[in-house]
Amino acid sequence: MPDNEIAANRSTLKEFFASVATIRGDLSNITAPPFVLSTSSTVELPQHWASRPNVFATPTLAQTPEERMMKVVRWWLSSLRGQQYAGRDPAEGVKKPLNAVLGEVFVAQWGSSGDAEEGTTFLVSEQVSHHPPVTACRVWNDRVGVEAEGFTRQEITLAGGGVNIRQMGYALFSLRNWGETYLIPLPDVKVKGVLTGTPYPELGGHYQIVCTSGWAASVDFSGKGFLGLGGGGRKHGFEAKVYREGEEGRPVYSLSGNWDAEFTITDERTGRDVETFDVAREPAVEATTLPLEQQDPYETGRVWKGVREALNRGDMQGVSDAKNVLEEGQREMRKVEEREGRQWQRLFFRDVGEDSVGVDLMRRVGGEWKPEQTVGVWKFDLRAWEEKRRPYRGGLRPDNEMGGAMGNDTANGFATSQRSPASGKAQAVNGLSNEPLSDRSTPSTATSANDKVLPPIPAQIQQQEAQDAKLADGLGEMSLEEQAAVEEMLRDQYSSRRSKKR
């Protein structure tokens, strides 16, 4: 990135952060300057669990519980680079993913990598809540009997000039052929280098993976800026070990290295290295989705089509305009629902109230589950997946207009019905068959090298030193109502500033 662009970006970032530096609480729904936005939506991030389908499926082939645990840890570590960088090249840094709209879904699949026995891996993820933002997902491969399911809420705060991302929720990885379920950590993240123009994610802390088999693993992240061992204090370093529960001091496997590059797996019983896994050289497989014209209006590719096109051509005003259309439509829909006393109906996930397996595994690592943090315990609804057909919501679009997928708004197989906030007329919710998708068509996530940036606002430039001091302040808690009010305030502020600038 040229020095003049970095300087311009930094000035605009300072203005943005100064505007939110005195806000107390979660910033996950705050509207960021367009040039820091990724073309990926938060509802797409779970795809990195399966972006290496063979690594996702491999644990079921291991013949001992300790080796299966090691393979699960290997899979999880290999997914972190894609998740934390949202599929971008680490050299390009990170950008803020688009905040998924309520009801947004991402449906994808991966075919086998030359071995028909591997079968097809499917993914369904859905934004089940917007305030607070909660994403639920399921990844599975029926042929090999491997599945992962979870839900997460990200709470974003500022501290010490960086961005802290705390994840709430949990994920379970299951091997049906072995009757085993694993509790998978959702690590907290600190985004560093924000003001230098080269932000990057760093993980820190101690996490455990536990299994119903009685085996466990511990992972200690010690990247740049964190105290500890592993990775030599370099970016993205970690140390991990696999052991029988209660015998952490007698590991049978150890893993160490860097989760964005290369790590080594060692059999501690023999002292021999089992494998050196190079994340960068093990290519991620692009997910297959339906062509845009065949997607439902609530599928990610359709939801963000206008925003992505504007981002890719460097049209920041176009980004703002396209986002505003969506946001205004969403606000109007929520107002109508509140006025009519209706609740938003989820498509493929249901709040089941409690999950005994997840709660038990969480207790074994000293955790305590609080369903109110994620407004429920979200589980995949297999029947809904098998029965629903596109268009899922009778052609209702997230901008509160009507228009179906594949040019067809006709319902074929009513699962439930609801009223359209746009017209007040009853609309059928249609479904989707569990058939392989056809045609490869994944919306581009590339960012143009010629991205334009918003010019710095002169009045704010004069206050940069004061803004830097504010950036170092820690942030506390605030209510969801306050979050919504702050988001509205900032949107109005940026809109008025741009108008004055013009």
TrEMBL record:
Residues 392-476 are annotated as: Disordered. Gene3D superfamilies: 1.10.287.2720, 2.40.160.120, 3.30.70.3490. GO terms for molecular function: oxysterol binding. PROSITE patterns: OSBP (PS01013). Residues 409-421, 430-450 have a biased composition (Polar residues). One of its GO terms (cellular component) is membrane. Belongs to the OSBP family. PANTHER family: OXYSTEROL BINDING PROTEIN, OXYSTEROL-BINDING PROTEIN-RELATED. This is Oxysterol-binding protein. It comes from Cyphellophora europaea (strain CBS 101466) (Phialophora europaea). The lineage of its organism: Eukaryota, Fungi, Dikarya, Ascomycota, Pezizomycotina.
